[in-house]
Specification:
The protein has 302 residues and is of the alpha+beta class. The protein folds into 2 domains: 105 residues, Electron Transport, Fmn-binding Protein, Chain A (Pnp Oxidase, Chain A), CATH 2.30.110; 117 residues, Beta Barrel (Thrombin, subunit H). 22% of the residues lie in helices and 38% in strands. The strands form 3 sheets. Strands 1, 2, 3, 6, 7, 8, 9 and 10 form an 8-stranded antiparallel β-sheet that branches. Strands 11-14-15-18-17-16-12-13 form an 8-stranded antiparallel β-sheet, with helices on one face. The protein is globular.
């Protein structure tokens, strides 16, 4: 398999261990760990757009992680005259169609919003889509701040390549302070059931504090049954196991944090969990946006 020099150079910029050696790079291509098929990249990015997936963002060699979504780039409304009256009408366009041109990628302003200042002075922009079994990392470069139908957005280059990272940890969304999400836990045998509020959640599991305080009898590998409740009377039932129990100290004393792994027996159940996590992520982004308003992003001069 022949390797294009431009692909090697970009791989070396983003993933030095892979791009330094043509043989290693070729092996990564053949195994599917590196993706250069532009049509597959389009499909992945269109899925991000349609699913409103939360994307992790990293700049150059900075370790701080920001968050965004992939956006559509609709063409401007067209003027049409009818009986002497000029009207603005939607041009013929299919959602996410601009990505098929493989020219550029549009994302939301990042959160926390300080990243919208930092991005102006960076080159590389790594976009990471986290799934339940792997992550896809898209290699982009920041181009400019633009507006799409009046909305301030960030424009990046269309990725030449992406890396698939198998077994990547799922993104854990912190539960927003004002989101009324509770979990009821039922245990086997004579162990006492309880209800509590989760700390964070992912497509694979969650973490919560044992409400019993400094005396917890939860044990690793214990099987439990859970029902999650959130606003508007919605709920989700799932079997799970205790992955770990960690003793922590807070302002009130000792507490036990429990890591839980879901047992997702069906694809329908997994999809329900994904939808719940996506909702938590959206609420968390809104909360971050409110917190980061103090940085004073001036959208008028975007």
């Amino acid at each position: 398999m022949m390797t294009d020099e431009s692909l090697l150079r970009q791989a070396n910029l983003f993933f030095p261990g892979v791009g330094e050696n043509p043989e290693i790079f070729t092996a990564a291509l053949e195994s599917g760990d590196i993706i250069v098929d532009s049509d597959k990249l389009v499909n992945l990015l269109q899925s991000c757009l349609h699913d409103e997936a939360i994307i992790e963002v990293q700049f150059d060699d900075l370790t701080r992680v920001f968050f965004c979504r992939v956006l559509d780039h609709k063409p401007e409304l067209e003027e049409m005259e009818s009986d002497g009256v000029v009207m603005l009408v939607e041009p013929e366009y299919t959602k996410a169609e601009y990505l098929t041109e493989k020219d550029h990628l549009v994302i939301t302003p990042v959160e926390p919003s300080i990243g919208n200042f930092l991005i102006c002075s960076v080159g590389r922009v790594l976009l990471r889509l986290l799934g339940s079994r792997c992550a896809f990392e898209f290699c982009c470069f920041f181009e400019e701040k633009i507006r799409v139908r009046g909305m301030p957005v960030l424009q990046c280059s269309f990725p030449l390549l992406a890396r698939q990272v198998k077994g990547a940890r799922a993104y854990r969304a912190k539960i927003p302070k004002h989101m009324e999400l509770t979990v009821h836990v039922e245990r086997q045998g004579r162990r006492e059931d309880f209800s509590t509020c989760p700390i964070d959640i992912s497509v694979e599991g969650m973490m919560f504090v044992d409400p019993s305080g400094k005396y917890s009898d939860l044990r690793e590998e214990e099987k439990i049954w859970m029902e999650l409740y959130w606003p508007r009377g919605r709920s989700l039932k799932v079997n799970a196991r205790v992955a770990h129990v960690s003793q922590l100290r807070d302002k009130t004393g000792i507490q036990y944090c429990c890591g839980i792994q879901f047992d997702l027996a069906t694809r329908a159940l997994a999809r329900d969990v994904e939808l719940l996590v996506a909702g938590v992520q959206r609420r968390r982004l809104r909360e971050l946006s409110e917190i980061s308003d103090e940085f004073g992003v001036d959208f008028k001069s975007w």
